[in-house]
Amino acid sequence: FVISKLTAKPERKLAKQLCKVVLDHFDTQYSRELGDAWSAARDILISPSCWQHAVLLNRFNYPFELEKDLHFKGYHTLFQGSLPYYPKSMKCYLSRIPHRIPSERHQIGNLKKYYLLNAASLLPVLALELRDGEKVLDLCAAPGGKSIALLQCACPGYLHCNEYDSLRLRWLRQTLESFIPEPLENVIKVSELDGREMGDAQPEKFDKVLVDAPCSNDRSWLFSSDSQKAACRISQRRKLPVLQIELLRSAIKALRPGGLLVYSTCTLSKAENQDVISEILNSCSNIMPVNIEEMARTCSQDFAFAPTGQECGLLVIPEKGKVWGPMYVAKLKKSWTV
Ligand SMILES: C[S@@+](CC[C@H](N)C(=O)[O-])C[C@H]1O[C@@H](n2cnc3c(N)ncnc32)[C@H](O)[C@@H]1O
Predict the structure, then answer these.
(1) What residue spans define the domains of the chain?
(2) Parallel, antiparallel, or unpaired: how do β-strands 15-19 and 54-57 relate?
(3) Could you tell me the pTM of the whole model?
(4) Which listed residue (266, 284, 299, 312) is catalytic?
(5) Which CATH class is domain 20-334?
(6) Residue 161 bears catalytic tag
């Protein structure tokens, strides 16, 4: 199944191996769903040497020297304040030319200064429009990138980070410990529930809920080193929308009337994106779509978008010069009355 060897992050000197069974499967599905946009995305996704990381600065241990250095190296800030909701406290830098910053080591007692991420991961966080004092649930939270980003935007009254997988839960705890000062830890709760049970456990408790769902993670699936595991994932893939819909139904229960819900995935798959949201809109009478097309317009200098046929859903698709994504984001609101 291995058809080519590509050099991964230079600092780690790992060889990433492209998995042909996954690539063939994606070729069939995505050329049908996305047309020409797929061939541009494909070129990026199969070439890890083109992949980039954005640098999210930690406001709790602000790296002034690094910020100067990033300016010097030609990095610019993401969105540049053009979005209707864009908290000044969130600073994320990215470069138009490929450049790599090493990730920081975890050291007990030391807060990290920055977090490396796919810049498109910030779209679901910003779509949530978190304000100081709000109660927010991150239903599928590990390894914690979006929880960290949420805390760069505002100081919630309560942040509940949930993760079902116990190994990944440890990773989540470590991320929170590395980025958040102790006094803020008092407003954060970490739990290990099946997200599908959260709605019954905590009905109507939250102002905002983020469902960053388990999905076919296109970038990582393309480089599965175990081809048997990859084939198994593909055959199980059609079960993912059922889980995603159940997680969303639970999130809706956990949301207070009038609250906002954001759903995101890092796959291009229509079945896990638009179809999941259409099913929710068709079957839940208390849920309304929220138009986020303005968000796509204001950040088109950094991101490429593929049409979704939905006003409430955006699909970031990688292309040359705008390598971020895949990322699907949908924004929904719970109505005040059923
Ligand atoms: C896309 S990842 C989340 C990434 C995370 N939001 C971040 O930004 O770092 C999806 C997560 O959902 C978790 N998950 C899978 N099934 C779940 C369930 N039933 N309830 C809660 N979490 C689940 C997975 O273990 C995985 O860590």
Answers:
(1) 20-334
(2) unpaired
(3) 0.94
(4) 266
(5) alpha beta
(6) no
